Each structure stands twice: as structure tokens, then as C-alpha cells.
Amino acid sequence: MNNHKNIPATSLKFVLQEKQSLTQDEQKKQLALAAITAISDYAPDGELNVFSNLEGEDFYQDIEIIGNIQ
After folding, report:
1. Which residues lie below 8 Å from residue 36, measured CB to CB, with a gap of 6+?
2. Cα–chain-centroid distance for residue 64?
């Protein structure tokens, strides 16, 4: 019935079991691969920097303007 609520707990259980089954060298290799894969996300045009163009924007001023229009 509410089995979908168990998905995160079950997923975490599988991840922990997988981690425990790996040697330290295998764990290090997986971490290195994950780090290499994430490099492009942190590049200047990467997905994690999409909103950096908004830095310095006055968000609250925009909200005030919208509020005054309505």
C-alpha cells in the first residue's frame, strides 16, 4: 500500500551493503571516478554554476516591483 515510502530506506540499505562489499582500494577508485565525473559540473559553464549569473541581482527589489504591479 504505502511501499513507496520505503524506497529511500531500501535504497540506502542497498548502498550500504554495496559499500561494505568493496575493498578499500575499490572504494577509493569509485570515489576518484565520482570526483572526475563531477569536475564538469563545477566548470565555469557547468550545471552547478547556472545561477551564478544571478549573483548581485537584487531579488527583493524585483519582488517589490511585482507586488506594486498587482
Report:
1. none
2. 31
**What's the sign of the alpha-carbon dihedral 26, 30, 36, 39?**
negative
Grid coordinates of 24: 578499500
Q: Output the nine-digit C-alpha cell for 60.
A: 527583493
CB 47 within 8 A of CB 41: yes
What pLDDT does residue 64 have? Answer: 62
Q: What is the pTM of this model?
A: 0.45
pLDDT in tens, 40-54: 888 887 877 777 767
Of residues 21 and 65, more confidence is placed in 21
Are 41 and 33 in contact by the 8 Å Cβ rule? The answer is no
Q: Do 29 and 35 touch, CB atoms closer than 8 A? A: no
